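SEVERITY: medium
COMPONENT: batch folding queue
REPORTER: lab tech (J.R.)

DESCRIPTION
The queue accepted two submissions in a row. Attaching both inputs and their returned structure tokens so the on-call engineer can compare them side by side.

ATTACHMENT 1
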Amino acid sequence: MSAVQNVTLPLESVYKWEKQRADKVYMTQPMGNGVVQEYTWARAMNEARRMANYLKAQNLPPKSKIAILSKNCAHWIMSDLAIWMAGHVTVPLYPTLNADTVSYILEHSEAQALFVGKLDDWEDMAPGVPADMPCISYPLSPENDYPTWDSLIAETAPLEGEVERSADELATIVYTSGSTGRPKGVMLSFGAMGVAASGASQALKLFTEDRMLSYLPLAHVFERYVVEQSSFYIGFELYFAEALDTFLQDLQRARPTVFVSVPRLWSKFQLGIFKKMPPKKLNRLLKVPILSGIVKKKVLTGLGLEHCRFAGSGSAPLSEEIIKWYRGLGLELLEGYGMSENFAYSHISLPGRSRVGYVGEPLPGVQQRISEIGEIEVNSPANMMGYYKNDEKTKESFTEDGFLLTGDKGEIDDMGRLKITGRIKEIFKTSKGKYVAPAPIENKIISHDEIEMVCVAGAECPQPHALIHLSEEALPKRDEPDFRANLEKSLTELMASVNATVDPHEALQFMVVVKDFWAIENGFLTPTMKIKRDVVEGQYKDQIDGWYAGRAKVVWE
């Protein structure tokens, strides 16, 4: 739906750095056992060119779809460039998918080859890969019999010259996380990628000297544009993490100047700090003028964030308390908003202009408006070309004048900052005929220290209720009598305070502490950690009548 001209395209950017920054380190990749490899621009481009030449030698049809299934690593980035230089289209897959979804995406996209990379659950995914699918294995891949990256580039000469891809050409098909059924293939052009990288770099004032740790899945549009595409455009350094267990060391190695993560990690960082220093003591020290600066620096240095100008959080709302707590340490946490359908190039909170509870203001070139039914409509220069093999759904997703229908409800303040107030499709009706938007209520609950996830439900029930998933630290304690008693008391108080801020028909009747573990692997969460509401609500449908009849304020499932 969107064609962008007169913008620097991804391949044009990397060709420039290949010449101008040939000997500068571009990517730093931990290889395990304390080994760390550095990729200069010259080395990264040399390997990408060799792989591009190998792909060309396979004589695939022009603009074939080639998939990448891997956690973030240097080879992911080089594969992306190789696919493009070979004249093909990249299809990224989340590294947490099950075999059924892997099979669906490979078949639907008509993928002709697959890069198999750094993965934790390859044995669960492998059955989804067709037996005759040509595959290439990364150095960090699980054990397999595929040709390896290192052997193929050793045997292949680098591709010569500068292959050009036009702005309106298809660059990638990104499959949505599938929270409402089968994933849809979002088609994004090289122009969309170029304009997103340019706009983000301009809005956030990114520099060539910046450093980022690539942590969120590159299969997701947000990481792909803010980290990968911005690094192409600006030429800054990228670092990668080795594993969850080494994440803090990886962060300390990178010492990022800009860092983007998810609410769960920001909460874990905070809990880690509190284990070393109780909150009351820390707050007391932060109020002492002479000690305050020293303590702030020590805490941020311990996280590897002492050089961080600002940090971002995405995929889910971040509680107001956590945002304010990090700001108290001198770290500005910025939230953003976007969709796969516009390459996440939509809204971002800007340093010095952010407002708690709002996801920011439109990025350069983006238009926003609220429809008559309260739906957020966005016209982004990075809007998708459409859904792959689904013209009908594509047409349904845009207004006549080219605005994307986001499905989100929202409001805009006098500075143009956007607030998300719920999902139009998530709004449910109680048995009293009253409509309830769950998201604003969930945002009030999620700030509780012991809660990791929450799902407000209650369709065709007298009043809404909240399903509570405890934090990783609280889960092992759920059966301890003292813990239960204290949590019941605090949840009852929390529910009373939440109910005091909402309309009477939105007031929660009770909270349920679930015993199930909501995870990507068992289908409760999407690959981007969003709750699959139909799955979560369906899990407890047989117990709802008993909960309402019991009249308890806190229910232990």
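ATTACHMENT 2
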Amino acid sequence: MRVLDTAQMRDADRRTIDEIGIPSIVLMENAGRAVAGVIEARFEARERRRVAVLCGRGSNGGDGLVVARVLAEGGASATVVLLARGEDVRGDARANLDIARRLGLRVVEAPGTAAWDACRPAVAGADLVVDALVGTGLRAPLEGLPAAVVADVNAAGRPVVAVDLPSGLSADTGACIGAAVEARVTVTLGAPKVPLVVSPAADRAGEMVVADIGIPARVVDELGGPRVELLTRGDLRVCLPARARDAHKGDCGRVVVVAGSPGKTGAARLAGTGALRSGAGLVTVATPASCVGPVAVVPEYMTAALPETEDGTVRGTAAEVVLGLGADVVAVGPGLGVGPEPRALVRALVERVPGPLVLDADAITVLAGDAGVLALRRGRVTVATPHPGEMARLAGMAVGEVQANRIGVALRFAEEHGVHVVLKGARSIIAAPSGAVRVNASGNPGMATGGTGDVLTGVVAAWLAQADDAEAATSLAVHLHGRAGDLAAQRVGETALVAGDVAKHLGAAVLELAGG
């Protein structure tokens, strides 16, 4: 499902109106009726007896006026609070304002602070608030009266349904540019918008519902600009590779995981288990010789002993052993350790692994300041799976800069270095060298615990070994990993969730996606 920014949404509206011939006032009517329909479906009659609809003077406010009219027709007591003077409202919004008044709808103008102060008790006493103050055009933080209104709405603690976007969010970024309405439900019009699918802004949106308002699907598909997609189960189901009835283990991919060091053998075990539980036919965990014993406790994968330093970390010369294992996919980094020898190993694997290579954790850290070496892999599939701190080190920026522009940072690095980037975190970003960006919605806060990223490393490697399309395999892996975490949380709760629980539920996640 495509995700749009401000310019793309504006272009979609224009093309629908000018080229397809659907009048803008029809789109506004469809939008308002769609929002009202969601309210009637999500809230019982007693929860929407008294509705306060907050409207700006633009198109978003016009949508809100339609919402108020439709809800009033359904029996609700709807009050419109217009944060403008009526004579300042233009176009389709003005037409709907005039309709509302002719129908006897209560419309209160509150263009200033004193007028808003008089309206505040009615808003605070409403059963439900509809936020139709500001739409997709916001680029700077709210100030003055709109900012005060947002603060008062949030303080009132009433359930809020936002029209298109919670007021205060910018449609161009997943960052919170300033104060924003905290919605329970956001009904986004035509297509999802960037802040509704990317954290931390998405945390303000509550449940997102995408409303069809009459913009043709082909118009959205043909839009220029960034190609950002929200992963859906329908998209991913077709990515699941079919397994032949006469398949043998060699057909399902040979994965080698290079991981572990003293005190971090668990990372190696988790990565290996993630690969096994994701369908890889043969998995070998290559680890420093002194770590083989603790790692070998999982009977389903093989182990390989790597030459090690005096402190037990892997030597750079271990590359020869790894390359001799005949892997279809190599994953390197979980618990590997840092320093000159691990760095030499990672660099050698970057240069010499002929097939897909997955870089995680310490493998990413040792490449900080040396990311240019990734150019040596152009033409070969490389997947990097950093968390925000690792992404910051790899890209040479602050963590705050990464989090303020998760899509932009991941995409820029993917395109510049020719690698697939999985920027982990809430709503993980998957960026491809082709310029495609996908946002994953599965997963939960309980997965913010040590080892879940190690499991993901194995999951990514396994699906790369089974699928021909690296973009599809990476997206599938990230979704299934998150969904396994969701299924695990249903069993043990988010607080008690550990990485091993995620690995145990990978099979259930695959079954669910496949429809089994």
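NOTES FROM REPORTER
The radius of gyration is 26 Å.
No errors were logged for either attachment.
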